[in-house]
Amino acid sequence: MVEPIYVPVLPTRRDAWTAYEALDALIRRRIAPLWTLVPHSGPERTRGVPAALEAAGDQAALGRWLTPRVDRLITAMDGGPGWVDAAHVEGRVEGAAVGLWRLATRSRLRLVTGPERDPTLQRYTADLAFLSGRGLGIRLLVDEPPDEPCSTRLLELLDRLCLPVSQTDLILDMGAATEGDETAKNAIAALDLLGTLRRWRTVVLTSGAFPRTPDQPATAVRYEVRRHDRQLHHAVRVARPGFPTRVMYGDYSVEHAFSANAPSGDDQYGPPWGLLRYTTPDSFLIARAPLRGRERVDRVRAAARWITESGWFRGVDHSAGERWLHACAGGEGSGGSGNAETWIKAGHIQHLNFAVHQLMSTWA
After folding, report:
1. Is residue 160 in some structural domain?
2. How many separate domains does the chain show?
3. What is the pTM of this model?
């Protein structure tokens, strides 16, 4: 039986789930995504600040928005394994009820909770997980060096939820990984302290190195960014080669680690530019391109050519992402230059495909 080896953390947006659908079936079998249900409305959520129980608000509006989104996600997964985190919507229990019930009963996705969340919501998620028969993921946001109180809170959560450890996954989410930070040290400490508390069914270590898109981008239109998430996982494997449980590699694909904290919406007054992106063994190639203007198409094609003419481009036989970039770079006229959603979808396809092949080569 082919087992997943890679956990991309993806937002429940159309570009991400259609990218997953576009992957070859053999690649999908090696992937177990962690989907984060994006907020319905309001400001961007702050990492680590849990949702509160909300009896007020338009619960019906949330249900009308969330349920079809969940149905579309279930269709995209097509029975594949993974996790789904409802942290941004679970506070409105009534509005989220139908969507979460369908996730528990109509998919193979495992629900997720965390020690920082409201105890009532933890219990509710655990009950749905028990009914699903697939168990539960515990997602820990490791933004500081873990300590004994952290392990105590985790043990108290496990005891309170009464789920067998054989059906419990530990997801260590390191957030954004940047050069020179302490993320790798914190990851090793988290594995030593928390990864050994129980004999977890699965241990996932995830972080994200794709840069956050600034509101006012720098003058650089094309640049390269190191994949510190990949380097972090390598450092952990070197430091702990004999860890009792295999630690699954996770990343945020070609999204910033906070991307899923922002509500999903079609903002016609958003930035007048987007990003073409390409993953290499140790870096991301990023090209900024306009979304409007008379020279838009020419500049988009030039950005695509910068990627396809680089020494890192692997050719059209590797994925649909490469094929789109190649066609865009050599195209004529206005057709085929895409938009921001097209560009990130192509980036996801190429990255997910490449990450699986890279991991298979590493562990061969």
Report:
1. yes
2. 1
3. 0.95
